Amino acid sequence: MPAGLRKHVRYPELLLKLQAEVYGLYHMTNPEAFYNREDLWTVATEVGLARKASKRHSRWSRISCS
Hints:
Shape: elongated
Distance between the termini: 46 Å
Radius of gyration: 16 Å
Low-confidence stretches: none
Number of domains: 1
Order of helices and strands: HHHEHE
Largest sheet: 2 strands, antiparallel
Helix content: 40-55%
Number of helices: 4
Mean pLDDT: 78
Oligomer: single chain
């Protein structure tokens, strides 16, 4: 895509949030884990301070259901 066109492309923030929320549940492939909701993900709420830290850590974090 040409750079001049790329700067005009936008992705709705609400759509991104909804997709992330849905993916947090439906990424599971094990039916038992899905049913028990054992492997839920959430989008990280903190942004890493160092540039290297943001590359090392995933934007997803697991929710403990205990």
